[in-house]
Structure formats: C-alpha cells, structure tokens
TrEMBL record, chains A, B:
Belongs to the FPP/GGPP synthase family. CDD domains: Trans_IPPS_HT. One of its GO terms (molecular function) is prenyltransferase activity. Pfam families: polyprenyl_synt. InterPro entries: Isoprenoid_synthase_dom_sf (IPR008949), Polyprenyl_synt (IPR000092), Polyprenyl_synt_CS (IPR033749), Prenyl_diphosphate_synthase (IPR053378). This is Geranyl transferase. NCBIfam families: FPPsyn. SUPFAM superfamilies: Terpenoid synthases. It comes from Woeseia oceani. One of its GO terms (biological process) is phospholipid biosynthetic process. The keyword Cell membrane does not apply. Keywords: Isoprene biosynthesis, Magnesium, Metal-binding, Transferase. Its cofactor is Mg(2+). Gene3D superfamilies: Farnesyl Diphosphate Synthase (1.10.600.10).
Length: 296, 296
C-alpha cells in the first residue's frame, strides 16, 4: 500500500536523474571516451537510495528540495566513483554490476580509474556552484561530504574491508568497518539536510544522527544477506561473491538468522531516533523499512 | 645571485610542508596502512612548484600568505593524487618516482588507488575548513580547483595523453593536451590568488591569466626535454620513458631545439603578462625562469 512518500519516489528519482544528467558533460565533449565512461557509471539505473534519503531528510526539516539538490547530486556522484574503483581488478575484480559490464570491462582500466577520479571534483563542483544554498551552507556540505568519502570515511572503510579478507572480526569491529565503508556516505546523505536547515535544535540533530548511524549499518547487513540469498535463489549456488572473496560479513561471521535479527534491531533504533519529528519523519521511516526489506 | 624571492623559497617550502604535515592524518590513525601511503605519496621531497606559484601570486596581489595556504595545500594534495594514479600499472606503469618506489610498489595497487582517492576529499576539506578565507572565497577556490582537476582539466588531459600514445599530433593539439594535463593545475595555483584577492581589475586578471596559461605549457615542454636530456646525461641512453612509451611530446614530435625555442617563447609571453604588476611580480618572474631553466 503506497504511503505518501512512496507516491513521491518516482518524482524524486526523476529529479535526481535530471540533476545528474545536467551536471555530467555530454558524450561529445572532449575527451569523449572519458565522458562516456563517466555517464555510463552514473546513469545506470541505480536505486538512488542516498539522494532519496537526502530528499526525505529535507522533508523532515521542512527544506525546499532545490536546496538539497546539490548535496544529493554530489553524494550520488561520489557513490558512483567508489563503485567504479571497488570493481577494479586490484580491488574486488568484478566483471558485472547490475547485470552490465563494469566500467573497466566496458571501456578499459585506465579509463575506469580516470573516469572515477573525475567524478569526485564534479561532485564538489555541484555543491560549490549551487546558488540555492548560501556560501556558508555550501562550505558545510563540502566539509560533510569530503569527510564522509575520505580516509576516515568511505575510502578508509574500503581499505579496512580489503585488509579484513579471511580474518575473523568481532561484531563491533565489523560494524565499525561498515560505519565507514557504507555508513559514512549514508550518514552524509541524511545530515546534509542539517547543513542547509535554517535552524536545528540539539535534540533534532541528535535524533537525525541516531537514525543516520543505525540505518547505514543496517543497509550494509541487508546487502550482505542479499549477497547470500540472491545467489541462492537466482543461480542456485549457496555462496555469493562475498564468500568467494572470503570477505568479513555479518551473516558470514555470525549466521543469516542473527544477521536478520541485528538488522531489525538497527531498524528499530533508527526509527526511535525520529520520534521528535512526528509526522514529518514519515518519509525517513518509510525509507528505513525499504532499506531493510528490499530484495535487491 | 639570489633574488629576494629566491631567499624566501625555503621559508615557503617549509610553510607548505607544515600545512601538508598538519592536514595529513598521522600513521597511527586507522586505517594506518592507508594513512602511511597517503603520507608517503605527499611528503616525498617534491619541489612544491605549485604552492610556490600560489604564494608568489599572493605576493603579486598583496595577499597575506595565510589566506593562500589552503589553496596551496589543496593543489599539492591534488597533484600528489594524480601522480599516484598516473604511476599505476594500468597507466604509465612506473616503478620509481624521484628515485623511490612508487606507491603501488611500496604498498600495493589497491592501497595506491585508495590512498590517492582519499587525497582528493582531503584537498577540498583543506579549503572548506579554512578560517582565513570567507565562505565566498572558499567556494571560489573549490570551483577553481575542482574544475582544474576534473574531466575538463588535469584528468581529462591525462586521458587524452594516454589515447595519444603512438599518434602524431599538431603542435596546437599537443599544447591543448598540455594545457589540460599540466597547465590546468598550474593555472589554478596562480589564479587561486585572484579568488582571495579583495579586488582585482580586469587588466590584472587578464595579465595573471596570460602568465598562468603560458607558463603551464612551458612547464610541460621543459619536463619533456628533461625526460630526454636527463636520461642521456645520467644513464647514457638517448631515450627517456616518454619515448619508450611512445608518448606524444613536443621534443619527440618536433625536435629538441625547436622545443627549447618554444619554451623560451612561452616564457617571454608569460613574463609579458606581468607587465601591469611592476615590481610586485618579481617572484612570479623568478619562478617562470626557474621553471624553464630547471635541471630536474
């Protein structure tokens, strides 16, 4: 049964597609091959969960969507850059993403490295060039996003993930890695609304933080579960790519059922954080359930 | 005979080393290996020509050096990131840089990719967190630097460079590629002073642009000449790494002597741009000569 936010999903995904389409150089702009690779990596029918979280957070804080466009765009560009590099032979060495050849397979390795490299400055441009936010708000967004994708955020998490292959981690260590690898950018998607809010009470900020921290980790655990279940259902093999790569994952280390329980616990904790917002947080609640229940 | 700016060189290189040292996470901050690789790639005894150009441009426009620190730091971090990725097996496949193992040789390929990835957001953080510039000036710097290192700047130039191997380009096409690959970041180093200047006449801006555009191309041609001459003098081989990789270079396509003449012509053109500044441009003049005359 569609909730009001579910009914607006398509509007928002069209909105972010539009923003991405507009900021990405056209394929006939030189260097054409590089721009083709950038567009291929971004305009690929992704679920756009991070932009949706940004728009839902903006609704929660009564912010006009055009003031969150630049952050939503930047974060999706950063997410795309990270996927291109994660897929490289020196990293996860994946040939397919969403059923299509990965960028280094479709183009070549050098082009994949450079295309992703060029998505990062494009992301920061999106924020610095936005006229719907004040320069102070843009600077706040850039600090937030830069921290989220740097060595103490997403990129650091990916580095820890690679060095954890074949190792046994405690649940706390594992979730610390998830908080960086996946959680940091999801956290930034949500907290970007706080940067452009005219005012925000301490209680509201803490509530949003609690939601952001918990749902980011839940997102990754759900990904791990899908990596196992998806393979089992679709190609009849019990092991997904995480197991083949001997990755440290929640269900891999502690079992599928405990992973599902942990996911629900995190969902509940994230929803609890939204109490102070009442009805306005409905979109964020809807997205939290979507993240934990999704089948892809 | 040391000119006044030459006497301040050491002061400025110590200043930028200090800025870089302070912004880079320590090696004992997790993930330690990633941070070690980031520090290794940046704190490597580079010549710091881009920061020097930024400080000299600040002197030219009567700007306090502390207002250009963040741009100088960001640009040197971006430069370091680009070298790490350029050296990767999928790109130039270099084992040594400045006589030391390249980052992917010293660490591993995944760490090299990620360390460089993390230098980019650190660069934008440096600017966005700076309190010596106004939020408007920070946004101007971020737009400038993001454009310089993106697909229509440095990264685009590197992409064209790779696809030009073995091809014959006209001098104009070659210099267009140099303007992106090398010129864009040098241009940003110089024009960053214009972002933080309180006011700037159109004449001054055009003069600085002329200097910036010409010296960036001269810098790359000098690099090409050194790649040939350096090898010849030091290990007695007539061919440098550019020739081995069949790179399109100025001396390679048009000869060493014409390359030297073109370099001098660009030097003269860059110096002519500084006429409106009188004595205040002495540091930039000195650096232009240094760039064209340097032996490494």
């Amino acid at each position: 049964m569609p909730t009001p936010f579910a009914a607006r999903l398509q509007e928002y995904t069209a909105r972010i597609s539009d923003c991405l389409e507009r900021i990405l150089p056209a394929e006939d702009v030189l260097p054409a091959r590089l721009h083709a690779a950038m567009r291929y990596s971004v305009l690929n029918g992704g679920k756009r969960i991070r932009p949706l979280l940004a728009y839902a957070s903006a609704e929660c804080l009564n912010i006009d969507p055009q003031r969150i466009d630049s952050a939503a765009t930047a974060i999706e560009l950063i997410h795309a850059f990270s996927l291109v590099h994660d897929d490289l032979p020196a990293m996860d060495d994946d040939d397919l993403r969403r059923g299509k050849p990965t960028v280094h397979r479709k183009f070549d390795e050098a082009t994949a490295i450079l295309a992703a490299d060029a998505l990062q400055p494009l992301a920061f441009s999106a924020v610095a060039e936005c006229t719907a936010t004040t320069p102070e708000q843009s600077a706040c967004l850039i600090r937030l996003i830069a921290h989220a994708c740097g060595s103490r955020g997403m990129t650091g998490g990916q580095s820890i993930d690679l060095s954890s292959e074949g190792k046994t981690l405690s649940a706390a260590e594992l979730e610390q890695m998830y908080a960086l690898k996946t959680g940091a950018l999801i956290h930034a998607s949500i907290m970007s609304a706080a940067c452009v809010a005219d005012e925000l009470t301490g209680t509201d900020r803490r509530g949003l933080q609690q939601y952001a921290d918990s749902i980011g980790i839940a997102f990754q655990i759900r990904d791990d579960i899908l990596d196992i279940e998806g393979e089992t259902l679709i190609i009849g093999k019990p092991a997904g790519s995480d197991i083949r790569q001997d990755k440290a994952t929640w269900p891999g280390l502690f079992g599928l059922e405990p992973a599902r329980e942990r996911c629900d616990e995190l969902l509940q904790h994230s929803i609890n954080g939204l109490e102070c917002f009442g009805e306005r947080a409905e979109p964020l609640r809807w997205l939290a359930h979507y993240i934990v229940d999704r089948e892809q």
